[in-house]
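Researcher: Here's a chain I'd like modeled. Treat it as a single chain, no partners, no ligands.
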Amino acid sequence: MDHEPVKISVVIPVYNEVKTVGQVMDRVLNCGFDAEIIVVDDASTDGTREFLRTFEHPRVKVLYHAKNRGKGAALRLGFAATSNPYVFVQDADLEYDPRDYHRMIEPLLDGRADMVYGSRFLGGPHRVLFFWHYVGNRLITLVSNMVSDLNLSDMETGMKAFLREKLIELKLSANRFTFEPEITSKAARAGWRIYEVPVSYSGRTYEEGKKIGWRDAVTALAAILYYRLLD
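Model: Modeled as a single isolated chain. Structure tokens:
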């Protein structure tokens, strides 16, 4: 007897990804799960918004920000619109592969975890790029681990999965890329059971559209201390 596919919700925050967002949605729709997709356009200016207005699929819902508010704000809006018991975060830039959902969901399905990080640094295949980005990511994760008493290998990963019932309990407020340190700090403080699994990673160059830079690393470090000491 065949089992019905597991129902998941996938939230995709989008800002100026007209070249890739269609491919990402197609990959999610064909990832082997019964996936609803919540796309949140963060006031794109490159044609992404116009493309999304013409895209129609019964399992895709598109929400729009009137002005650019950041990844964290887009994710909060998307999380509020989810309806399935397992929620995934998926970037719109093809760096993360929805085929890795099968590996990530296992600790959620069998009751071991409330949240799963897809780590780029646990041995999965990855494009070889940017030594100093790697150092920066490891430094941010180290500082995060020191203040949260976790032993993550990749706090900043863009691929995370949650039990929806847990996710909606957290009071999130970060608007931009500080979403990552905020949810890590608050999940640790709430005593969530957190797992990591290796995922593949196909990083982009800046010419290909990569947006994260050293200023974001400094902001992330400041956010880690803020959520530990002041929030």
